[in-house]
Structure formats: C-alpha cells, structure tokens
Design brief:
326 residues, single chain, ten-stranded mixed sheet, binds ligand PBG, 11 helices
Length: 326
C-alpha cells in the first residue's frame, strides 16, 4: 500500500478551518499603547515622522485614554515632554512633572486602564542623555540614584507599573529597593532589559525631543550584533527583581524575543518602536503596502516569536481591526 499523500492544503481551504488551527493570536489583551504628554491645554500636536500620533496635553490625553479603554486596550505607556530641561533632568522626578500630572489625571478619570510610566531622563536633560553626565561621560551610579527617584515619584502619582528604559547597570535593583522603602512593594517593574542602540528610535526622538546633544547612546544601550549578551541582561534584571522583561526594538530582533521566551519563560514584552511604525506608515502612504495587513502580520510575528505583551503605536488600529473582524 502506498502511503496516502499528506496534503497540508486541506487545512488551509476554508477560513473557519484556518481559524481552528491558527497557532498564534494577536488580541487586544496583548496591547500597550504609548502616548506623549505635554504641558498646556487643548494641545494635539501631530508628530511628523509618526503619522496618526500626537503630543497631547492632559485634557486631550484623557480623551485618548478613554478611547483606548473603551476599545479594551489594557494599558498606556506614558512619556512626557517637560517645560524645561536641565543637566539633572529635574522635571523627571518633580511631584508636579508632566508625567506625574498625566498619571494622576488618567487614574482619576479612567479607572479601567493601567498606567505604565517610562522611567528615564533623556527627555528631561539638557544634554539629552539617559543619565548624569560628567566630563562628557554618562555616569552610571549617580544616574541610578536619580532614576530611582523618578520611579518613586511615578508610583506616588499612582502609576500601576514603572518601566525603566535607561540601560544603566543596577537600576532595577535600585528602583525595587526605593519602591519598597516608599511602601510601593506591590508596584511591578517592567524592565527594558535588552534595549539596543537602534536607528529605529529616530522618530521617537523627534516626538519626545530627546536626541542626545553630543555623541550617541552606544555606551549604555546594547550593540545590535549581540544576542548572548541580551540573555545576560535579562538574567541580571530578573535577579534584581524585574517582574516583566522587554526586548526592544521588536521586528529586527525576533530571534532575541524567541530566545528570551525559551530561556526564561517569564512574562515578556516587546516594543515595536517608532521606526517600525514609521516604516509601515511611509510605505502605506506611498501606496506600496497594505497598511492594515502589514501591521497585523508584523505584530502577529512579534507574538509568534514569543512576546506576551506588544507595545505598539498601532494599538488603537489593531483594536479597531480586531473588532471589525469579529
Ligand atoms: C527613552 C526611550 C526611547 C524610546 C523609549 N524610551 C528613546 C531612546 O532610547 O533613545 C524609544 C521608543 C520608540 O522609538 O518608539 N530612553
């Protein structure tokens, strides 16, 4: 008897069958939506290299937050643009800083939404680096002290989770200790553990006005060529008390995401960054890509690689698209 031929196409024939055997799902539950808060009222300022994204004053941010919550998006990731920048980024840890105000406002008015805050200094420092600069060098330990203050000030404002993105050594441990001391033992840390020195942050730096004024970030963010080192960074952050770890960017680092999921099996986030968003938007505007399909394919790939949480500027578009498909 000849072996009957196995025909993989049998399971591809009908849409309902394809649904039954689908291995990966991108759902609204997986999404985190990054937003940019600015001082003022009635501000909704378009970001050039991120079509569809705006810098929002708090009143406008609240409308965006309600919108996101009504679509079932579980969380915002809040970034802030300060009134003034200085050498030590003092608005980053000011009680009435832009992020602290935004967190309070969202927590007061939109209960069904988690507020995660980005803990960093680069938007707040005059030199645009993610820490304290001395003699042209970003100094690790003094930066960590300030970052811990930033995290505590966010928790005091009501943040549900803090997300350090600075890549200083030892910052997760310092933030955990500072949070615990301030009685925020229940506030989780989502660590940007494997954050690469990436060209794909370009549009974000325009949006957040956070480009370094001298040099670059390669002395603290990771070399894009390294994957083994990413595992070491993740192990360190877990040791220091990270609750969720992150790989960033997402699409050019799917191998790192896959390895991280396999090796650690802990909750894993991937940040599909501004440049990934800009690429798809630009190609779509030129008529070169079907934006909706490319968006779903790219973000489903991030989930397939192993990310549990997908941070994306497309969050609302994905939510809308999933709703339409139901
Ligand atoms: C701050 C920070 C950056 C991003 C998130 N947090 C910029 C950077 O490190 O230069 C990038 C996000 C994006 O590109 O969407 N350190």
């Amino acid at each position: 008897m000849p072996q009957p031929m196995f025909r993989p196409r049998r399971l591809r024939e009908k849409a309902l069958l394809r649904r039954l055997v689908r291995e990966t799902r991108l759902t609204v539950d997986d999404l985190v939506y990054p937003v940019f808060a600015v001082h003022g009222r009635g501000v909704r300022e378009a970001i050039g290299a991120m079509p569809g994204q705006c810098r929002l004053s708090i009143d406008e941010l609240l409308r965006e937050a309600k919108d996101a919550a009504s679509m079932g998006i579980p969380a915002l990731l809040v970034f802030g643009l300060p009134e003034d920048k200085d050498a030590r980024g003092s608005e980053a840890y000011a009680e009435d800083g832009i992020v602290q105000q935004a967190v309070r406002a969202v927590k007061d008015t939109v209960p069904d939404l988690l507020v995660i805050t980005d803990v960093c200094l680069c938007q707040y420092t005059s030199h645009g680096h993610c820490g304290v600069v001395e003699q042209g060098v970003v100094k690790n330990d003094p930066s960590v002290e300030l970052l811990a203050r930033v995290a505590v000030s966010h928790a005091e404002a009501g943040a549900d989770m803090v997300a350090p993105s600075d890549m200083m050594d030892g910052r997760v441990a310092a933030i955990r200790e500072a949070l615990d001391e301030a009685s925020f033992v229940e506030t989780p840390i989502m660590a940007y553990s494997a954050k690469y020195a990436s060209a794909f942050y370009g549009p974000f730096r325009e949006a957040a006005d956070s480009a370094p004024q001298f040099g670059d970030r390669r002395a603290y963010q990771m070399d894009p060529a390294n994957a083994q080192e990413a595992m070491r960074e993740i192990a360190l952050d877990l040791d220091e008390g990270a609750d969720i770890v992150m790989v960033k960017p997402a699409l050019p680092y799917l191998d790192v995401i896959a390895r991280a999921k396999q090796e650690f099996g802990v909750p894993l986030a991937a940040y599909s960054v501004s440049g990934e968003y800009a690429m798809l938007k630009a190609a779509a505007q030129l008529g070169w890509l079907d934006e909706d399909r490319a968006m779903m394919e790219a973000l489903t790939a991030v989930r397939r690689a192993g990310a549990d949480i997908v941070i994306t500027y497309f969050a609302k578009d994905v939510a809308r698209r999933l709703e339409r498909a139901r």
